[in-house]
Structures are given as C-alpha cells and as structure tokens.
Amino acid sequence: MKINILFTSIEGNTRSFIEKLKDYAEAHRPDDTINAKEISEADPFDDETEDYFVFVPTYLDGGNGIDNGVKELMTNALGEYIDYGDNATHCLGVIGSGNRNFNQQFCLTARRYAQQFNVPFLDTYELRGTSRDVERIYQTMLDVLA
C-alpha cells in the first residue's frame, strides 16, 4: 500500500515521527511505501494529484486559541500549500502533534486544519511520539485507506 504524507517540522519532532513511521513500515509492512513531503516556506506550491495525510504541530503566538483568538506561526506554509489549487480535495485527514502542557491548545492547529479543509481529525501524539503512537497512527492511516 502507498501512503502519502505532507508535513511540516519546526523543531524536528514531526520529522522524527515520520521517520519512525517509515521504520515501522520497513519492519512490519515491507510491501507498504511511505512517501513523505516536508513543506516549508521555501517550497513552491505543487498540484497534488494523489491522496495524502497531513501531519502538523501546533505553534501559537498570541491568544489562547479558545476564547480570545489565535495567531498561528511557523506552520502557515503547510496550510497555504493545502489550500493551493485542488490540493485540499486529496487530503484524507489530519494528525496533530504538540505538547500536552498546553492543555486546550494541544494539537489546536491540526483541529483547525481539519475544520478549515472539512476533513477528519484523525489522531494526536505528543512531541516525538512513542512506539505505541506510531503503531496506532499507522493503523489509523491503513483503516482510512482500506
């Protein structure tokens, strides 16, 4: 099975989690292929032609994101990329990461993307994730693709 992923990684946590997913696939699902594309502000927009999952961390500057506004920072390029052309029509769902210390703001960007692009909010993991997170999220992606 082919699994396409778009992601952004500011501190390296999301990139690390994607690598864990690739390692898991290699060890447990050798017939699966994970194609992961990291999106940054330096990347040109492309027209996505295949379905994909989005992995996004939460970085906020100002507001609490709940009742007094929110200003996302550093992940905007990914949101703009998804919004480009028909790219959003290929999004199968969003997986969020963050730090649970931020309480209601935990994975807020992923929740907002899911709402903005009218796609499922699939799962969360904290920071670089655990092996259990990798197994669970991998299975979630397989379930969506089935």
From TrEMBL:
<dbReference type="GO" id="GO:0010181">
    <property type="term" value="F:FMN binding"/>
</dbReference>
<dbReference type="InterPro" id="IPR004465">
    <property type="entry name" value="RNR_NrdI"/>
</dbReference>
<dbReference type="Pfam" id="PF07972">
    <property type="entry name" value="Flavodoxin_NdrI"/>
</dbReference>
<dbReference type="InterPro" id="IPR029039">
    <property type="entry name" value="Flavoprotein-like_sf"/>
</dbReference>
<protein>
    <submittedName>
        <fullName>Ribonucleotide reductase assembly protein NrdI</fullName>
    </submittedName>
</protein>
